[in-house]
Amino acid sequence: MSSIETVLTETRVFPPQEAFKQAATISGLEQYTALCQQAEQDYPGFWAALAQKELDWHKPFTAVLDEANAPFYRWFHDGELNASYNCLDRHLSNRGDKAALIFEADDGTVTTVSYRQLHQRVCRFANALKKQGVGKGDRVIIYLPMSVEAIVAMQACARIGAIHSVVFGGFSSKSLHERITDVGAKLVITSDGQMRGGRAMPLKPAVDEALSFGGCEAVTSVIVYKRTGGDVTWNARDLWWHDLESAESDYCEPTWVNAEHPLFILYTSGSTGKPKGVQHSTGGYLLGAVMSMKWVFDHKATDIFWCTADVGWITGHSYVAYGPLALGSTQVVFEGVPTYPDAGRFWQMIEKHKVSVFYTAPTAIRSLIKLGGDLPNNYDLSSLRLLGTVGEPINPEAWMWYHKTVGRERCPIVDTWWQTETGAHMIAPLPGAINAKPGSCTRPLPGIMMDIVNEDGSHIDGTGGGLLVVKKPWPSMIRTIWNDPERFKKSYFPEELKGVYLAGDSAHRDDDGYFWIMGRIDDVLNVSGHRLGTMEIESALVAHSLVAEAAVVGKPHEIKGESIVAYVVLKGARPEGDEAKQVVAQLRDWVGKEIGPIAKPDEIRFGDNLPKTRSGKIMRRLLRSLAKGEEITSDISTLDNPAILEQLKQAVS
Ligand code: WT7
């Protein structure tokens, strides 16, 4: 896929349809521009008014943006609120019986949970957590499949001021262990297993193993939700979820917390081997989730909203666990995979639940095109009114298919650019105001001050590309990296850039002022919308007893966006033939265990050495070219050992 090249020549424009525009929260370009101007003129005032109007405060704030200790910004910091109260209690009087969650299991079984029922379950579970000694500020690890329980667990933590850290169920016991110890968790919530594509897969063994690695002494109990009914090894610290929940009462007083109190920590990959614990606030974060639901998803009380992301990622935090609930929306939550029982599952579910707003990743769209590009035609998709994408650039071909075959040329598409660190959408075409262009995330949300700068932080017009930055702090921004404030400063506010937030992406701007994301500037890969650090994978590889050295790069991939290519130098001789195949299988398996199956290299190439400069620096630029199969025509005069390039041309197959 040559997405960068194709987007650079993309000229099609799709204006909002008149009827959509008329009914939209932000209707027309003038209204968008007016909001942007308001934010320009009185930045704190703009956000303060929204925070007052959209959130329920226990104690109203008087302070808005505190920049005294920049870049450790604070928003609304003398106000008090509770996220769970905002997501549940405030709906009980007028929409208690409205469906909050329509949960569809892997096998198609549907469970509907009303706001009142969800409130009850969250209260009961919050009481149970308290009884386990969990209180305000304590960290709780959640390692659960997509389920009502995962949402209950997150909301219950929020209710008592505990800080959750959700770990995606696809991460290995090693990754889980790293997060448990870094965050200093007191309790882990998991399930016996998970159902995916008709098969039960165990989950709890990873928790048992993680805790056996040591350094987790702070974990006093493990709560286990029974999902598959599979056998589990039972330890003294284990407790069944259902036993705890049934013993509790239906109400738990929310713990009021400061707006800056951490709501959660979510780990994401950076350019070193160690994942970063991105810490989010309560007030500012929730405001970001709410405003983007309203502006970008044009939220309506009658919507059936479906975001297909797992709660293990930021998308599942902002647009499953918090955003839709804060607005009293009805949302679909799906346990399974898009290809089971066949590649029509998403379309079938849209028809069945009359989904009106559908939000998924380009990688899912591309794989569903490949597996059954005509399948949407077999379903009634007339309930849809808005489509969204997230996680990576969408290539215009996939955009057009989504527009025609899923949206039937009626539905606007919002291509949302944002990050774990930004908490909420930052750049996206507001569907009733901004003309979409396939492949561009278009323009920033009101109150979000995006820019393109050069290496020294100066503004450039961006037509030739540059660094994507945010010029002013915004409410839902990352507050710090847990346990590592220095890394926070260095990663996001490097001195050369003079105080602007560095996103880590390069972008260019077209003549209409639209942003086009070109890719990461750091050693971070985007594989099927999952963010992975090349260093993380390299560290995993060199931890294997056979491996002396490893370098990992990304290579464009038709479905996944990027695939993982690993160059490996073994301690012994360079393997060939069957032996090479065997080592490849071993190493892939190993990375799966060290990090998780999503990090397994797609290709492994062996060399006697890696291409290095005379000073010993690995020449990644060359490795990227080799991965793509390009002839090396560039200057390799600084290369110490040109002969090994030949060896590294071939992947083991
Ligand atoms: C990185 C952030 C935000 C939720 C999912 C990913 C890439 C994200 C887009 C988009 C082009 C995108 C960027 C960004 N990205 N959305 N619409 N167009 N690129 O969150 O794991 O924190 O990754 O994903 O490179 O920096 P994440």
Automatic annotation (TrEMBL):
Keyword list (alphabetical) reads: Acetylation, ATP-binding, Ligase, Magnesium, Metal-binding, Nucleotide-binding
Q: Which InterPro entries match?
A: Ac_CoA_lig (IPR011904), ACAS_N (IPR032387), AMP-bd_C (IPR025110), AMP-bd_C_sf (IPR045851), AMP-binding_CS (IPR020845), AMP-dep_synth/lig_dom (IPR000873), ANL_N_sf (IPR042099)
Q: Does the keyword Ligase apply?
A: yes
* Residue ranges annotated for the Acetyl-coenzyme A synthetase N-terminal domain, each copy included: 32-87
Q: Per UniProt, where does Mg(2+) bind?
A: V542, H544, V547
Instruction: Tell me which residues make up the AMP-dependent synthetase/ligase domain.
Output: 89-474
Chemical reaction(s) catalysed = acetate + ATP + CoA = acetyl-CoA + AMP + diphosphate
Q: Name one GO molecular function term.
A: acetate-CoA ligase activity
Q: What is its EC number?
A: 6.2.1.1
Q: Which Gene3D superfamilies match?
A: 3.30.300.30, N-terminal domain of ligase-like
Family annotation (SUPFAM superfamilies) = Acetyl-CoA synthetase-like
Q: Which Gene Ontology BP annotations are present?
A: acetyl-CoA biosynthetic process from acetate
Tell me which residues bear N6-acetyllysine.
Answer: K617
Record NCBIfam families: Ac_CoA_lig_AcsA, PRK00174.1
The family annotation for this protein states: Belongs to the ATP-dependent AMP-binding enzyme family.
Entry protein name: Acetyl-coenzyme A synthetase
**Species name:** Methylovorus glucosotrophus (strain SIP3-4)
